[in-house]
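batch_manifest entry 22 of 60
target: AB hydrolase-1 domain-containing protein
source organism: Amycolatopsis oliviviridis
requested by: lab member K.T.
priority: normal
notes from requester: please return tokens only, no post-processing; we will run our own comparison against the previous entry in this batch. if the run fails, retry once and flag.
--- input ---
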Amino acid sequence: MITDDGCELWTSATGRGEPILCCHGGPGLWDMFGTLDPGPGFRLIRWDQRGAGRSEPRGPYTLERMVADVDAVREGHGLDRVPVLGHSWGAHLGLLYALAHPERVSALVYVSGVGLGYDWHAEFKRNFEQALGERHSRWAELRAKSRDEAEERELAVLQWTADFVADGAHHAEAMATPWFPINYEANAALSEEMRTVPEQELVEACRSLRVPTLIMDGTADNRPRWAVDSLEPALPSVTRVRLPGVGHVPWLEAPDAFRGALTDFLVRHLDMS
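--- output ---
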């Protein structure tokens, strides 16, 4: 599909039933929801954000433009109002979209997001190093050098391994297949812009958001869960589901528990008669 500024975005619809518009993590990565099974009665709308994966490698890489791209995907699939599911950075993008266009979002599913502030990075770094253990030295070696494509993929797989409690290498390999170049320009630009938005400003905006929201995360996520504490009480209609002993990508590590929580929330909050 083509956005209003002429950028070509890859998008896909799978399944039959109530649509769910997915926003993948990153920034600068691509859709990794291919193995997400929401159960019968749901249809996944997936897409690669601009500059990454199968979408056109071009900017601009701004929060405003990314929110507009979410709306373009919604409109491109002929949807009036739709549940939006975001993971990690995509959870933040989904929240920003709901704040900008609440009338177009029937429900928000905020998966493994990191809240509204940015003071969690130091603890995350410690958790990450501990999770990698002896593999951290190889990760640091790759991180510090110029890398070819094979080394770039090796670095990503090592890094993503730390996002899981069990079978991390297996799950990380699945995330890296198929493999696309990481867009570090998009990652840097969007990460920096996110840091410029004051936490209190987002808290105040969330107080008036009437969209039913599910915050779902694993208790063993190496991104500290207390970072979400400012978001949860700011939302007027919020459900919090914590998955015990699960890391950052719960639909891979605990697919049944993830699917159960997701479908229960959506059935309760959507008119699916």
